[in-house]
Amino acid sequence: MSARSSLSRPSADGPVRDGIPEHGRIPRYYAVKVGLLEVIAELGEGSALPAERELCERFEVSRATVRQAVGELVLEGRLSRRQGSGTFVAPPKIVQPLALVSYTEGLRRQGIEPGRNVITLERRAAGPALAADLRIEPADEIIHIERVLLADAERVGLESTYLRAARFPTLLDVFDPEQSLYACLRERLGVVFDGAEERVETVLATPREALLIGTNPALPMLLMHRISWGPDGEPFERVRSLFRGDRLSFMTRLGRVE
């Protein structure tokens, strides 16, 4: 059976069947994409993808079809492009828990070394939007900490944290911005996190964000908004975290609803 005929015949289940539209015709690029997933599994992490010409011959399709299939796998984080070197099998995505744990804790549990590059460390007026979220006045001061997030020295995200300055008057004196903020709040300032509300959506990075994270502005990003509060129910922190969708995924555990 030729590569062309094998791509035209869907399996009873699995990714090919999942991608078949109702009219039953498999898009050519999608069949190539499924075939490439098998190639990726055989090659293993860090291996170079065969040359475009070789893939065209293997699947008996045009360069445009191969490029579309490869492009989708790059967007999904299965493949990564290195300028001047080629396309390679990407490492597995980092799994970050959706829980009241810090970025540092989440990565170290997976054997990944976290890191941060400080971009902004300042005190300024809250402004209307932040004031509404933190239940303070627009003229009240907040502490703004903006950092590029690293995983084994690879840039994977950009985090902006806003805290009530009046509640943490000594924070900037005791906080090392290259270390875990949550560890500092708990261990140095005795802060108790009682709860948080978190929202996740997909966005495209702004030109500034893409430059700081080192990603293509066309790649989808995962944007997380979090407001945290203590035992008194008063919000004291708002966090805006932007993560590379090709490198991170999120996990949470759900319980049964009675």
From TrEMBL:
InterPro entries from the UniProt entry: Bact_HTH_transcr_reg, Chorismate_lyase_/UTRA_dom_sf, Tscrpt_reg_HTH_GntR, UTRA, WH-like_DNA-bd_sf, WH_DNA-bd_sf
Species per Swiss-Prot/TrEMBL record: Amycolatopsis samaneae
Disordered as annotated region, ranges: 1-20
Protein name: GntR family transcriptional regulator
Pfam families: GntR (PF00392), UTRA (PF07702)
Protein keywords: DNA-binding, Transcription, Transcription regulation
Domain HTH gntR-type intervals: 26-92
Gene3D superfamilies: Chorismate lyase-like (3.40.1410.10), Winged helix-like DNA-binding domain superfamily/Winged helix DNA-binding domain (1.10.10.10)
